[in-house]
Design a protein that fits this description.
The protein has helices at residues 3-32, 38-58, 65-80, 109-114, 142-154, 196-203, 208-212, 218-233, 247-251, 289-306, 330-334, 337-370; strands at 159-174, 177-192, 238-242, 279-283, 312-313, 323-326. Strand 1 (159-174) and strand 2 form a beta hairpin. The protein is flat and about 125 Å long. Helix 1 (3-32) packs parallel to helix 3. The chain is 48% helix and 13% strand. With 371 residues, it is of the alpha+beta class. The chain folds into three domains: 3-80; 140-158 and 193-335, 2-Layer Sandwich (Muramoyl-pentapeptide Carboxypeptidase, domain 2); 160-192, no CATH class. The chain starts with a helix and ends with a helix.
Length: 371
């Protein structure tokens, strides 16, 4: 055998046991102490091992077991020393005065995946509210009143029956002679007037809701809200076909109507925007127009019976059945002479009582003066 190879074999056998022990100690120290102190040990060991390797590769040397043990002695001493434990970090606990300040615990992905739409809602969850379902707060909130009336306006078809007059020539016999005369013939036609309010709102540069609902007198608007809400609760499904109308909107109306500036819907003679004192109401129940007409008649009869409870009545009845207004307004009073007569009688009665009271007081003062 080559003498050099024999020398290397003997050196490796002598070095194998201490190096194995060193490796186990390093591994144990790294696993037990979380790598604390491992880096310095390896740094101190690296020059020693490098020097041994360099010397082994340059020239053959006689390896003595005592020399190897002396070389690794510093490393063993470093491993034997107890490593300093890391100082624990202080734990800060924040005292929360309100349970609402606690952060919600995060759910794991598995918990999130198990949640389905069919899970029951929390006890404090509010049910969804439709466009015509009103909470108690709406009885005092004007903005909510406007939204409710606007919802009734939006859901109502804008259809009407108007009378059109046409002229045509007919042949007649007069005194044995045939003559041609012009006759005016009237007939009812259906009209879709859904374009009129949008055009009127655009004419004044306003939104539809602000124009149609915002132009109504505030007191009458509240009465109308209470009336229509009660009718809705009674299952009559009321709707609004027309509310505020200015002079321009009145000018493009057709059929039987007031002068452009004298409409109680909001003509300039009546006060204009913000002073509309009339609305047209119908029922939206029914798939056909004939069915809606029948349900509207039921609604109008209900208004005649219960409208005075809300301060609203129909001034014209069969002449303009959808039209409603305040019962203490000029329009309604002028169309109900009996009511006007009762009011006049009550006024005269109050005046007579006042005069009688003043006369009695005068007589008492006179009697006291005579004494």
């Amino acid at each position: 055998m080559n003498p050099r190879l024999a020398m290397m074999a003997a050196w490796c056998r002598e070095l194998a046991v201490p190096v194995s022990v060193l490796a186990l100690l390093v591994a144990f120290g790294s696993a037990g102490n979380g790598n604390i102190g491992t880096a310095p040990i390896v740094n101190r060991l690296a020059p020693v091992l490098a020097a041994d390797v360099n010397s082994a590769t340059t020239q053959p040397i006689a390896v003595n077991k005592a020399d190897v043990v002396a070389a690794i002695a510093p490393v063993m001493e470093a491993l034997a020393k107890p490593t300093a434990e890391p100082e624990p970090q202080p734990i800060v606990t924040a005292a929360l005065t309100d349970t609402s300040e606690l952060l919600p615990s995060e759910k794991s992905p598995a918990e999130v995946a198990n949640v389905s739409p069919a899970d029951p809602q929390p006890a404090d969850a509010k049910p969804s509210i439709g466009s015509t379902e009103i909470l108690d707060e709406c009885f005092v909130a004007e903005a909510c009143v406007d939204r409710y009336l606007w919802a009734l306006y939006q859901r109502t078809p804008k259809e009407d029956t108007v009378t059109e007059k046409t002229q045509r020539e007919v042949k007649l016999k007069r005194k044995g002679k045939t003559v041609r005369v012009t006759r005016t013939v009237s007939h009812a036609v259906d009209e879709d007037f859904s374009w009129k309010d949008p055009k009127a709102a655009q004419h004044v540069g306003m939104s539809m809701a602000d124009y149609v609902i915002g132009g109504v007198d505030r007191d009458f608007k509240l009465r109308l809200f209470h009336l229509l809400y009660a009718a809705d609760q009674a299952g009559l499904s009321p709707g609004i076909t027309s509310a505020f109308r200015d002079d321009y909107r009145q000018s493009i109306a057709s059929g039987l109507k007031a002068a452009n500036d004298r409409s109680f819907h909001g003509g300039s003679f009546r006060g204009g925007y913000g002073h509309g004192l009339a609305a047209d109401i119908v029922s939206v129940t029914g798939a056909t127009r004939a069915e809606r007409q029948s349900s509207s008649e039921t609604l109008w009869s209900w208004v005649d019976k219960h409208g005075k409870e809300f301060g609203i009545g129909r001034p014209y009845h069969d002449r303009d059945p959808p039209h409603v207004g305040p019962i203490d307004g000029t329009e309604y009073v002028s169309r109900h002479p009996a009511k006007s007569a009762r009011q006049a009688t009550a006024k005269r009665h109050k005046t007579t009582i006042a005069h009688a009271g003043r006369s009695a007081a005068k007589r008492v003062r006179t009697a006291n003066a005579v004494r």
